[in-house]
Amino acid sequence: MCELLGMSANVPTDICFSFSGLMPRGGRTGPHKDGWGIAFYEGKGCRTFHDPAPAADSELARLLQRLPIKSRNVISHIRQATHGQVSLENTHPFLRELWGRSWAFAHNGKLPGVKKWPLGFYRPIGTTDSEHAFCWLLDAIRRRFPRPPARRATLWRFILEHVQELNKLGTFNMLMSDGRELFAFCSTHLSWISRRAPFGEAKLVDADMTVDFAELTTPDDVVTVVATRPLTSNEVWTTIPPGSMVVLDRGEVYGLEPGQRGVRRWT
């Protein structure tokens, strides 16, 4: 399996601390040694970095741990290959264009049989089941909504219905974003934490690093991080119920659960 990391914030924020907590799991404290990638949104642009080498040993990863690229939405992934060879084209997150925006997608899990599902406009570049699922999902959104729907919750509910279909094939923990909202669907394991005033200290589980966010933020900042497993040892993370999806919008968390028509604000 793989591990996921995402961030949503109401102001441009760097992810150096959380990224430093994830990278050791890519071959040192965890088995996810088959490549990694990260996408930073900057306005309508998306800055991406990929490396098929283990994240724990990657010079590029070490550079990004020190480089404070600021973004409101970030998606990162460390890979343990289960489908598709270890190669640059098979590293997540994958990118495609829809409605004039870059959509980024990362997946943790296995989807036996998904490559039998027909595709339309979008085609995979690599050989993973994950990228095929991403192309299928964007095809469905593109067919249903040639233009962005007026009500955001309409799109949210449509995405939830379709990722639930993918989840029936196997395991489908997912992060996806168009640079405005970050969608996080939990199949088995996914947790989030929101940091806002009053800020305090946080200590990483997989690295000897502690940070006092009170020294790095303003009272108006809201930053939410979502990860496969909690990255810190001294904070309380919220587990997303399996089969549910949260939408992160400028750091705020909205929950969508099976069988419920409404959208519940969690923060």
CATH class: Alpha Beta
Count of helix runs:
4
CATH fold description: Glutamine Phosphoribosylpyrophosphate, subunit 1, domain 1
CATH superfamily descriptor: Aminohydrolase, N-terminal nucleophile (Ntn) domain
General shape = globular
**Which sheet architecture does the biggest sheet show?**
7 strands, antiparallel
- Contiguous low-pLDDT stretches (5 residues minimum) are none
Q: Architecture in CATH?
A: 4-Layer Sandwich
- Percent helix, as a range, is 10-25%
List SSEs in N-to-C order. EHEEHEEEHHEEEEEEEEEE
Strand fraction: 25-35%
Strand order of the largest sheet: 3-2-4-1-12-9-13
What structural class do you assign from the helix and strand content?
Answer: alpha+beta
Explain what you see.
With 267 residues, this protein is an alpha+beta fold. It has one domain (3-265): 4-Layer Sandwich (Glutamine Phosphoribosylpyrophosphate, subunit 1, domain 1). Helices cover 18% and strands 33% of the residues. The protein has helices spanning 16-22, 59-66, 129-144, 152-167, and strands spanning 3-13, 36-42, 45-51, 71-78, 94-98, 101-108, 173-177, 181-185, 191-196, 201-203, 210-212, 222-227, 238-239, 245-249, 252-256, 264-265. It has a seven-stranded antiparallel beta sheet, with helices on one face. Helix 1 (16-22) packs antiparallel against helix 2 and helix 3 packs antiparallel against helix 4. It is globular, with a radius of gyration of 17 Å. The two termini are 29 Å apart.
